[in-house]
Design a protein that fits this description.
Helix 2 packs across helix 3, helix 2 crosses helix 4 and helix 3 runs antiparallel to helix 5. About 70% of the residues lie in helices and about 0% in strands. With about 120 residues, it is mainly alpha-helical. It starts with a helix and ends in a 7-residue tail after the last helix.
Length: about 120
């Protein structure tokens, strides 16, 4: 004998049109947020790759460099990552961001670590 026949589950009450509309809007907003997060994650991953190659650092250090530059400049991590990608394509970095990235790279470069 199955437990469902022993303990019948109450049927959910049907939702009103207003409740369905509200739920649809909530799901759409969540979907937009997930799409944005996915795009942002890809940009951050690419910027980590740039820093790994140009700064000769480990990928985990690349994320740390981005995070530190973001925190010290009060610029969102994804925006710092976008600037790094633009810089890799030839654009200039804002001076404040350039300085913070250089300082963070200096703290995390293989050559600056004791052997």
């Amino acid at each position: 004998m199955s437990s469902s026949s022993t303990y019948p589950h109450p049927q959910p009450s049907p939702l009103s049109v207003d409740e369905l509309v509200a739920e649809l809007e909530r799901v759409r907003a969540e979907n937009r947020q997930l799409h944005q997060a996915l795009a942002s994650h890809a940009v951050v991953d690419q910027a980590i790759g740039v820093l790994t190659v140009l700064g000769q650092i480990a990928p985990t250090d690349g994320f740390t460099v981005l995070r530190e530059a973001s925190q010290h400049t009060n610029i969102k991590l994804s925006a710092v990552a976008e600037q790094v990608l633009k810089h890799a394509q030839g654009a200039a970095l804002p001076d404040v961001l350039l300085g913070e990235l250089q300082a963070a790279l200096a703290r995390h470069t293989f050559n600056s670590r004791p052997v």
